[in-house]
Write a structure and sequence with these properties.
This protein is an all-alpha fold. The chain has a domain of about 140 residues. About 70% of the residues lie in helices and about 0% in strands. The chain contains 13 helices and no strands. α4 packs antiparallel against α5, α8 runs parallel beside α10 and α10 runs antiparallel to α11.
């Protein structure tokens, strides 16, 4: 995946972040290493009390000069990070809106522009995870997983400031795992989600959709039918809004329910195009059912 521009540079890991900070701290350590022995020599060899006073004054002056010298790159770094954060707010907001609209291509372009700039690694980590969501919407599941794995491996998503994003992160990773057929991993992510308690309202439909997909992929069609409570999918992205009804129809057909129940479930579903749903393109069995049921729009 090194051909992926989102993973081309080591830009989000704590190692890279602290390496950049060390370039500022090392001069301070060198300054202290030279100044303190010098001041100690002055204090030990000077005539008292005037010599001691001069040594203390010299120490204060040298320390002040050192702090000013070292503070300059720190101030520059902090100012640059604040400026980056301010500049990044608009493209990140637009990218999130594009993701919610199901436009993975636009979201990817915006988020790559965020990653191309220096700045806070927390923003880079969130942007990299969202780039995984953008790849998922485009049906590039391996790229999606690699990006999300890199964002998780960075360690920044576990920091206190970003813990509020954990439900969304886990739901996104669960969907990628479901698309790739890694059902045990998907189930583990969903279990971790459940352990967090009540999810945000905006994530309830996506989480139920993931649970429904998992049940169908496990072959538990009766269980899938029992938990298929979604009707309109109001909190789902456009690419997934009609999926719950199609999955309900499949669950009803596979669970051996009465013909009128199966037909009612099929009548409630709307035809889908393969290019409009990454899940449909990644799940041949679902495509076959949709085609046989007249729910695949091949126009």
């Amino acid at each position: 995946m090194r051909d992926d521009p989102a993973l081309a540079k080591d830009i989000v890991t704590p190692r890279a972040y602290w390496r950049r900070r060390l370039k500022i701290v090392v001069p301070l350590l060198l300054w202290v290493g030279v100044t303190l022995p010098t001041l100690a020599w002055f204090g030990l060899t000077a005539d008292r009390p005037l010599g001691t006073t001069l040594a203390v004054l010299l120490g204060l002056i040298c320390t002040g000069i050192g702090l000013v010298i070292v503070s300059i790159p720190l101030v520059i770094e902090a100012t640059r990070d604040l400026w980056f954060t301010f500049r990044a707010r608009a493209p990140i907001r637009e990218a999130v809106a594009a993701l919610n609209a199901g436009d993975g291509h636009r979201a990817e372009a915006l988020l790559l522009s965020v990653l191309a700039r220096p700045g806070l690694p927390t923003l880079h980590a969130v942007s990299l995870h969202n780039l995984g969501v953008a790849a998922l919407l485009q049906g590039r599941l391996e790229h999606a997983r690699a990006r999300m794995d890199a964002a998780k491996a960075s360690g920044w998503l576990e920091r206190f400031a970003l813990r509020r994003h954990r439900p969304g992160v886990l739901q996104g990773r669960a969907m990628v795992c479901l698309g790739l057929g890694a059902l045990d991993e998907a189930e583990a992510h969903l279990a971790e989600l459940s352990a967090l308690g009540n999810p945000p309202a905006a994530l309830r439909d996506p989480i139920e959709l993931a649970q429904l997909i998992l049940a169908l992929k496990r072959g538990d069609c009766v269980g899938a039918w029992a938990q298929a409570r979604l009707r309109t999918g109001a909190n789902l992205r456009p690419d997934a809004r009609r999926l719950p009804l199609l999955l309900r129809a499949w669950a009803a057909s596979s669970a051996g329910l009465p013909d009128d129940t199966v037909q009612a479930a099929r009548d409630a579903a709307e035809p889908l195009k393969v290019q409009d749903s990454w899940l449909l393109s990644a799940w041949p069995e679902l495509q076959d059912f949709a085609r046989q049921s007249g729910l695949l729009d091949e126009s």
